[in-house]
Amino acid sequence: MRFRLKALMLHMLASLAALTLVLGSLYLGWYRWPGWYLANAAQVILMLACVDLVLGPMLTFVIASPSKSRRTLTRDIAVIAAVQLCALVYGTVFLWNGRPLYYAFSEEVLQIVQAYDIDEAEVALARRQKAPLLPHWYSLPRWIWAPLPDDPNEQNRIVSSAVLGGDDVISMPRYYKPWSAGLPKLRGELKKVADIKYFSVLEKRSLEARMRAAGIATDRANAMAITGRGRPLLAVFDPATLALSTILRPG
């Protein structure tokens, strides 16, 4: 039993080190709050943790036996490690392809834009037009303004596409503008928490209570929803400077 427990602990430590290195790098680079929440990355992380920290070490515990030859034991553990590695690579690629690239203000809402939201053709088009806020493989999340174009025909085309589940302006880098350029428009779209449609009545009460606890007024137009794959969050701004004060979960 002692031999099995030692094998279990060593395998778990090795798995924890690999998982921490991968997830830590992704978190520090792209998935910091609110990225991991809005991208709904918890499900993938849970899958990786189950495979790498539970299933793999437990299988090692089962197959580890002092009566086995070193060669046989090494082979068995290598097979388990290979399965773990496949799961780790799959999860890493999934998280990489879904990494947050932008927090885009468009119309009346803030939205997370992930890497797989932007088609390669759109990137190529933006590059040809020398768009200033192009995404690159090394790009870290940026706050940007994504207004609809001035051309009414193009506006109608984009809106129709978005309504039917197609591309929206937030997935078209050629229309991106600096965050500072959109602040006047942002000011006009801020609302009181009670007037934001993305939250239920109970969620609004909870958010207002947390704002009051933080010393933030709830009777001023100072907030906007941030949407993504997970439940919407609430972004609260300083009405005077439009600096982001805090981001709150509704629950």
Describe the structure.
Helices cover 49% and strands 14% of the residues. It is of the alpha/beta class and 251 residues long. A 7-stranded mixed beta sheet has the order 4-3-1-2-5-6-7. It is built from 8 helices and 7 strands, in the order ααααββαβαβααβββ. The two termini are 45 Å apart. The model has no long low-confidence stretch (mean pLDDT 91). It has 3 domains: 2-97, no CATH class; 100-182, no CATH class; 190-251, no CATH class. Helix 1 (2-29) runs parallel beside helix 4 and helix 3 runs antiparallel to helix 4 (70-97). Strand 6 and strand 7 (244-248) form a beta hairpin. The radius of gyration is 23 Å and the shape is elongated.
Which helices and strands occur, and which strands form pairs?
Elements: H1 2-29, H2 35-38, H3 42-63, H4 70-97, E1 100-106, E2 109-114, H5 120-128, E3 142-145, H6 152-163, E4 177-178, H7 183-189, H8 201-213, E5 223-227, E6 233-237, E7 244-248
Parallel strand pairs: 1-3, 2-5
Antiparallel strand pairs: 1-2, 3-4, 5-6, 6-7
Helix pairs in contact: 1-3, 1-4, 3-4
How would you briefly describe this protein structure?
This protein is an alpha/beta fold. The chain is built from eight helices and seven strands, in the order H-H-H-H-E-E-H-E-H-E-H-H-E-E-E.
